[in-house]
């Protein structure tokens, strides 16, 4: 079966990509608007953009009326955001933040989650998440109906229970993976193959 991209609608392309490129981590993004109101929203079109400097990125779709999501409006205005990683424990709370609240209405009270002050940026962190990344906006790429937000990580906050001294024990993190639509996967079933992995290990310029 081959499908030429020029023959599919945006909805069909979305269904294909959503079901092919998975599991994906969920970035629960905190921002503030110009009046200081906290906004929280989950984004699963999300990944690493660079390791030096450390950068992460996520893709926000334009709304049906062509307008930007509140997260993007806030990041454009303040140039700052925090990525809170989503675990099994907080998935339900996070999903409550995805409803379409009016601009200026904070999702925070609807999630049942709490916040902690950040060190370098104004948007707060979500206390119940074990990993937070404070980010400064690097670039917004306009990509058709999506906007790719690239942020430089200024501070990594790592719960002591998951930090090993040099990296994070991802099996203990219990990160949730987004599958297609409303499906998710648990990431506790970790396996490794050190010997073969070394064959493909690249020498990276740092
Ligand atoms: C698990 C999950 C993942 C999501 N991932 C994305 C995404 O990658 N891009 C996107 O534009 N919307 C995504 N959404 C929808 C946004 O979270 C939703 O539109 C939200 O209301 C945007 O909030 P805002 O207007 O406050 O920024 C996702 C929703 C859920 C529940």
Observed structural traits:
single chain; 206 residues; Pnp Oxidase, Chain A; binds flavin mononucleotide; 3-stranded antiparallel beta sheet; 19% helix; alpha+beta; 7-stranded antiparallel beta sheet; 6 helices
Provide a descriptive summary of the structure in words.
This protein has 206 residues and is of the alpha+beta class. The chain has a single domain, classed as Electron Transport, Fmn-binding Protein, Chain A (Pnp Oxidase, Chain A), CATH 2.30.110. Helices cover 19% and strands 34% of the residues. It contains six helices and twelve strands. The protein has helices at 10-20, 70-78, 91-96, 108-111, 170-173, 194-199, and strands at 24-25, 27-32, 38-43, 46-51, 54-61, 80-85, 115-116, 125-126, 131-143, 146-158, 176-178, 184-186. It has a seven-stranded antiparallel sheet, with helices on one face. It binds flavin mononucleotide. The site of flavin mononucleotide has 18 residues, from β3, β5 and α2. Flavin mononucleotide binds at residues 26, 39, 41-45, 58-61, 69-71, 95, 98, 100, 178.
């Amino acid at each position: 079966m081959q499908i030429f991209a020029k023959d599919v609608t945006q909805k069909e392309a979305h269904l294909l990509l959503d079901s092919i490129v998975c599991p994906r981590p969920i970035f629960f993004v905190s921002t503030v608007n110009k009046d200081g109101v906290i906004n929280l929203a989950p984004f699963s079109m999300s990944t690493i953009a660079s390791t030096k400097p450390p950068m992460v990125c996520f893709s926000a779709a334009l709304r049906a009326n062509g307008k930007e999501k509140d997260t993007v409006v806030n990041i454009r205005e303040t140039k700052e955001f925090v990525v809170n990683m989503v675990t099994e424990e907080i998935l339900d709370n996070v999903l409550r933040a995805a409803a379409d609240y009016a601009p200026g209405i904070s999702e925070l009270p609807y999630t049942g989650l709490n916040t902690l002050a950040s060190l370098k940026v104004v948007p707060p962190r979500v206390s119940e998440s074990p990993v937070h990344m404070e980010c400064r906006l690097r670039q917004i790429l306009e990509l058709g109906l999506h906007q790719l937000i690239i942020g430089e990580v200024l501070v990594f906050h790592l719960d002591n229970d998951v930090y090993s001294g040099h990296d994070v024990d991802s099996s203990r993190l219990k990160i949730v993976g987004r599958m297609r639509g409303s499906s998710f996967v648990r990431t506790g079933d970790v396996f490794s193959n050190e010997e073969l992995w070394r064959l493909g290990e690249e020498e990276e310029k740092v």
